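Support reply, case 0932

Customer input (verbatim):
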Amino acid sequence: DAGFEKARAAHGQERILVNCAGTGSAMKTASRSKTDGTIKHYPLDAFNWLIQINLVGTFRCIAKSAAGMMTLDPMEDGERGAIVNTASVAAEDGQMGQVAYSASKAGVVGMTLPIARDLSSEGIRVNTILPGIFETPLMLGAPQNVKDALAASVPFPKRLGNPNEYAHLALTMIENSYFNGEDVRLDGAIRMAPR
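Our regenerated output:
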């Protein structure tokens, strides 16, 4: 609420929301220790923490932004606003240890069409981007050999995605008023291997 209040005080009621926040961790659903054979499962608090940030946080921002957009007069084509969410290719082909991350991002994909339908009578569109392996600040901190190996796994072009490519697709989703209720992979045709 404070974030929306601050942004709206500076810029007025938004017509565009781009949900980009998210986090991840790697942990198997259950595992056996190689040293003593003890078995442990993914801690439920850790699972819930990821779901709260990536899925519930996205929904909270959508609901609050859409409520604000509904107060606006429609533009000449009847549109009041556009929302772009960020999921991940892990929503469709998550790797080992990505159960919470994949579930959270699959939830974002799963709610895209129902929310687009919920908000259609108000002239608010909703779409989702599923990025592959991108040059994020976190990724830029990885060793060069790791980045090179990841880039080599992309069918074409054999490199990591860059933020401008994400922004270009987001802008297309925002500007094209017939773009609604869609989930689009942006990944150089990569399909993630199990590990």
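We compared this against your earlier run and they match. Two observations from our side: The radius of gyration is 19 Å. The CA atoms of residues 166 and 186 lie 8 Å apart. Please reopen the case if you see a mismatch on your end.
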